[in-house]
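Task: complex structure prediction.
Instruction: return structure tokens for all chains below.
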Amino acid sequence: MKILVGLGTCGIAAGAEETYRALREKFESGALPHPVEKTGCIGMCYREPLVEVRADDGARYHYGNLTRDKIDRLLSEHVAGGKVIDEWLVWTNNGAGSEKAFLDRQNRIVLRNCGNINPESIEDYLGIGGYKALEKVLRESDPEGLIGVIVESGLRGRGGAGFLTGMKWRFTRMAQGEHKYIICNADEGDPGAFMDRSVLESDPHSVLEGMAIAGFAIGSDHGYIYVRAEYPRAIERLNIAIAQAEERGFLGEKILGTAFRFRVRLKEGAGAFVCGEETALIASIEGKRGMPRIRPPFPATKGLWGCPTSINNVETFANVPWIVLSGAKAFNSLGTQNSKGTKVFAMAGKVKRGGLVEVPMGISIQEIVEDICGGIKEGRKFKAVQMGGPSGGCIPAELQNTVIDYESINKTGAIMGSGGLVVMDETTCMVDVARFFLDFTQRESCGKCTFCRVGTKRMLEILTRITEGEGRDGDIELLEQLAVLVKNNSLCGLGQTAPNPVLTTLKYFRAEYEAHIINRKCPAHHCQKLLTYTIAEACNGCGVCGRACPAQAIAGEKKQMHVIDHSKCIQCDECYKTCRFHAIVRT
Amino acid sequence: MNHHRKLDFRNLHYAGEEGTLIPALQKVQETEGYISREKILEIHSKSGVPVPQIYGVATFYAQFRLHPVGRHIIKVCHGTACHVAAAKGISEALESALEIRTGETTKDKLFTLDTVSCLGCCSLAPVVMIDTATYGNLDPAAARKIIRQRQKAAAGAPAPRTGQS
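Output:
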């Protein structure tokens, strides 16, 4: 028997490190006869901290919300007493647990090892068949044959654009150059996406193995992983994994006794969303400002230091060893006509079960939101999902039967993107969501193209004034006009897609824009400047709101219902925040 | 202050000379807390990279700071999920608790308050990161409590960093 504690960033934020430390102390003092180990994240972020009791017969018992105060009972009842604690049990590998609907409907290829192995132990990775795919490729395959398998598998880039990975490798292989490079794009900049972080924190060796296989395919001996600096734990575990792989001869010179050599270097990003764009990312590795350039030439022919370069995303690389070992057919039998395999989604927002979900392509948005993630929190109404981050768009609840594949998502006006899926309910204002994304792209625009630099700023100004109740007649048309100009006159993906959040919300939630502009009302009761504050009968006249009001707009006798003077109210929300009797009503 | 500590470019050199600039700036920031004018000149004299280019890179990336910062850096996440979960309220609570505005440093040089685009802990939104520790599922009261604890802990700790490595 052993005990595993999930120590991904989300687990740690929920207190998993205290649980781990307390269990380790018990083990080291001899009070606990079973080893306690670290593991990554099984994706059930909403029940962190997670602790697994793994029996010698392979049975796995996952307990949720296992904070430090619960370990004594866990140890006495389950570990020593052999009695499973049903009320805390979230999942087992034999069909029990309160959250089995969440995990059992998933199909985990990319996340296959996440939460299963210790990410800081290469022995664990080797124990479940790690680096066997690299070995198979080096011993039994040639680069052309390998590329053929990846093409046949139908694997498309998981970073967003969805280009066929095998074709990208083929172009890079065919290109002439003194050196060739592999780059792993781990600059997961889309707000709302965290699958790359989780894979790097939970299973870094799979990514390294995928990169080495890609290196063999294109004839490269040098790879870079470009990781966001905001992911300190991923960087730490990658550094450990690289050192271990070098020591064991899976990276470096004469890998597995063959002539193949491949080194991996880690580059820390310095905080620029645009560096997710491949030419900007290359500029950043070269030490320059991360500004995109015109393509062609594509990086496959002229990339890092002017040499042929293949850039793939973390999730793409994590798929590669599995495809090599299981075969192209096993992969392309999953999914739809043009989108094969699985996709990992980062579920967040107003959904009950937030975390990582890996499903076969072709499943519908509804199945993910309702069946796997349990629907909307607090019984509210499902309004929309935001997909694809700042380059994506909002898909309304009416279209929840849309299936997950690159083309179907594109038809809605959103994009697959990296797979961030932020769920919104009736309290989310769609104009504010559009404003939020424009604020982001406007700040992150590198400034090279005028339409992106200035156009997004003007769009943001219009959206801001709409949410502040100062929208003008014609603003919607102006937004649409600017959106087209920004889209058509920007060099890279950032600018070309920046208007998407505005265009999709205008397409599906136009009435909400009109309510803001014409009626000066926010239907979601979100935009503060458009709210009317009144005091309801629940008021017991305690006077706290009156003292909190900076505009002296609230008056009333002690122990009598108070009244808000609307001519003085500045909609600062202070009264609403301070009232303990929910007597302040916002309409 | 140790302005004369040598920046070892050879260790940072992988392939090509200019690729060293960002790691060099990161190293300076890691040891000094920010990138001073002196350090920019030092990088220039050691690497030959023109000063405007170094300055251009240092101002392009959100990570680099050209002014001294507090000992602890508080980053309030304003990603999509955090935004939807009212991250604005967290920022406001911290601004009032620390008596500074976002982007500023407290008088005692203990805390710098900042925002970040996304920390990738979206299912625990709203999230705040202090140095490398992440706190999730916050509300304004919980955020204020963390700051009070940090302030208390800092009261018993040694003096703030002044630039030594």
